[in-house]
Amino acid sequence: xxxxxxxxxxxxxxxxxxxxxxxxxxxxxxxxxxxxxxxxxxxxxxxxxxxxxxxxxxxxxxxxxxxxxxxxxxxxxxxxxxxxxxxxxxxxxxxxxxxxxxxxxxxxxxxxxxxxxxxxxxxxxxxxxxxxxxxxxxxxxxxxxxxxxxxxxxxxxxxxxxxxxxxxxxxxxxxxxxxxxxxxxxxxxxxxxxxxxxxxxxxxxxxxxxxxxxxxxxxxxxxxxxxxxxxxxxxxxxxxxxxxxxxxxxxxxxxxxxxxxxxxxxxxxxxxxxxxxxxxxxxxxxxxxxxxxxxxxxxxxxxxxxxxxxxxxxxxxxxxxxxxxxxxxxxxxxxxxxxxxxxxxxxxxxxxxxxxxxxxxxxxxxxxxxxxxxxxxxxxxxxxxxxxxxxxxxxxxxxxxxxxxxxxxxxxxxxxxxxxxxxxxxxxxxxxxxxxxxxxxxxxxxxxxxxxxxxxxxxxxxxxxxxxxxxxxxxxxxxxxxxxxxxxxxxxxxxxxxxxxxxxxxxxxxxxxxxxxxxxxxxxxxxxxxxxxxxxxxxxxxxxxxxxxxxxxxxxxxxxxxxxxxxxxxxxxxxxxxxxxxxxxxxxxxxxxxxxxxxxxxxxxxxxxxxxxxxxxxxxxxxxxxxxxxxxxxxxxxxxxxxxxxxxxxxx
Length: 652
What we know:
Blueprint: E1 15-21, E2 29-35, H1 42-47, E3 55-57, E4 82-84, H2 96-108, H3 128-138, H4 142-147, E5 150-154, H5 159-172, E6 177-180, E7 192-194, E8 197-198, H6 201-218, H7 228-242, E9 247-251, E10 269-272, H8 280-283, H9 287-294, E11 304-307, H10 311-324, E12 328-331, H11 351-368, H12 372-376, H13 388-396, E13 404-407, H14 410-414, E14 425-430, H15 436-451, E15 458-459, E16 461-463, E17 476-477, H16 480-485, E18 490-496, H17 504-517, E19 524-527, H18 554-568, E20 608-610, H19 614-626, E21 632-638, H20 641-651
């Protein structure tokens, strides 16, 4: 019988598992916790998964009638009783994890291009923004979107960081916040934050299937289902409206003028972060053309802010602001002294530029919504002083894959008997830099980080046992003991990949020259294919590709050739790690003392290798460090946000 009618004691929780149809989800049947002693056997559920009888479902005193999944005992259920007819059951009746993977498959079906350089039209007779308006109308959100109090941010570099700072500042100021950023690194839910936390899987599924089913019912030949980013943008609006956020911080996806987010008619304030040469195949091959797209988010009567830009880009921004007769204020980088001894939650000197812009955007939002005087009129002595809420927000802001330091605890967790000092130390420095300007910033941050490891300092550290190891200000302070460990001889390793639409020679040259200027040199460069695919949306629970799966390494060999030519001034014999018995293979020369630590390389020594897969690369690194107790290996992972996300997934 499904579900069992006899209440049984649950071994882990004396709560009641009751069944309810989640009407707002339209695509999933889930169970929830409430008061009582009732449980459903997962095994019994599995056997009856696709053939549940129609029945009246009673849950002692509490039944949820409504549109949400409920999975915590703290939620209060309405007392009611209702029946579920067989034909009302959802089409996709699966376990929650399976349902989430089903949603990922549905999202993947919206990817219309096989690679980023593919600019083929989507289809249909409407423009992107016309389609966005029609999707919003299908979902009945026209009036609700206009009521959202939005901060809209475009730019080439730092827009995600700026948005993150803005959200944290306003959350610390007491507001319910929504944050929409892109791309995600490991799980698509990273793109949607509510009060600083990524949306739960249950809420995501509820809003996802609601949007999906309504759009499926409303589209036709002239208006096909939205491509991936358009769907995610519409979903963000849906989430923020339903969750009644008081401020929505929206990051532009690509460009500005024609971006899906530019369906926003009247934000409270707009911002443009640092501009540079990126996405030139779409936005144009000059900085002024790119600036024109970014300025497309400016709206009449909406104040705008930007940072110092190249002269041609600044001219375009000012011209557009003048056309709309709106003020455009150029913001200076944040003065560190205003933090009163606190540290920014995001590492790197370039983050002071983003923080300065975020402060101006947040303050203007507070002023225009009538909240500044209510909150800070009597708490701030002068205009140059930062309120305590601003400092808390700036110091606790966090975003993955941007100047992130991850200490790999795999060796000590999996080999506890080995002892604290019987294995080496492996640290990953992750930054998804993929433009010349961002690569320069990444290199500067990396050099500062590795060259200061002997000092007492604050580092954003993730302890890779699934928990974030951070103090209240978002940092972990090194003790004297960990500083002593950092005195071990170090080896610097570059783990690199980039998309084929990038110019790897420019990126690698910028990285090497910036590092060399500070006396920082890599012992080895590893070129490896990413695990993730451009045409598939995966989650944190998605499987890791088999090490036996062979990938085309042509692009990686090209990267290696560029590297060796740049380092030696000539081609050298390519080194590829063994492809035979790969589980037992060791990277040759990895920790060899022949490899210089902080001086130019031997002219006859191959300073790079092509790796067959990312999982094997991580395994090799761990094996080598475990077998060399004196080793302190610091790995810079950069060139691609896809690569950074894949490494984070493997480390978790």
